[in-house]
Predict the structure.
Amino acid sequence: MTTDERLTTLEDVALRAVIERALIAHHDSDRVGIAAAVIFEDKIIATAENEVHQTHNPTQHAEIVALRLATEALGQDDLSGCILISTLQPCEMCLAATRFAGIDRIIFSAQQENVAAKYFVFPKLKIADFCSAGTPFSYVGGVREEEVLHLYENAAE
Amino acid sequence: MTTDERLTTLEDVALRAVIERALIAHHDSDRVGIAAAVIFEDKIIATAENEVHQTHNPTQHAEIVALRLATEALGQDDLSGCILISTLQPCEMCLAATRFAGIDRIIFSAQQENVAAKYFVFPKLKIADFCSAGTPFSYVGGVREEEVLHLYENAAE
């Protein structure tokens, strides 16, 4: 598998790590196979997975948990300069949270158009719409998508 | 002050309660004057305020905290049938979180067009855009707005 030229080596390392975590989580009935990480400078400062089922809290998506861990790692709520990595395109909640945290680069694997509808609540709005609706940010989607798409295609809850 | 005819008595009681909490919080330099509540059937099952500063976590908006407390109160992550009340129009993160939780009625006081830009990250998208971008939900904004607008007009961080 060649590295996607749009990613740095560290970004690809982080993406491979969260994909591995998601694939393992997928085999456990109590876990959701979605994982995320946050990079700051030359380090992965946070990795997390979806905790909605364990916490009975619908806001505990992998990215939200990763953002919290990243703020704890840095000791501040401003994550400017950080990069968010996720196995699945961030939903509208996570995308907004990422922008509030000051993050302006997002890397993800599975893309909205290729996964079940349940992962998004405002499906007529695409990530490009959000990008042009405020201060622009950069994103790279679809990286290593073939490795995770089977996790997110099922339309059942 | 007459009750807004668009609200039930309980909704107005809850809104007055969160406004009171926000006004008090505003006088404390460690707190942000934004508060939210969740109603289920004939009870206010959760009230909360913005905890971003206390937790150094940019996702801990009042609504996110209120949703978590509501799920704890009901013992489940599905908040279908609940009503979200907030002193400030929910940002894009909180709006999406509310919809993921299954809530389809939202009441708020201060409206986006009358507050500082910092409260939203995708300002070109309005709540009506979100409403028409997925399964519709109902919302009532601007209720008792004159009581709280001074809290949110300041453009400074």
About this structure: Strands of chain B lie at 35-40, 43-49, 83-88, 105-110, 138-140. Residues 74 and 105 of chain B are 18 Å apart (CA to CA).
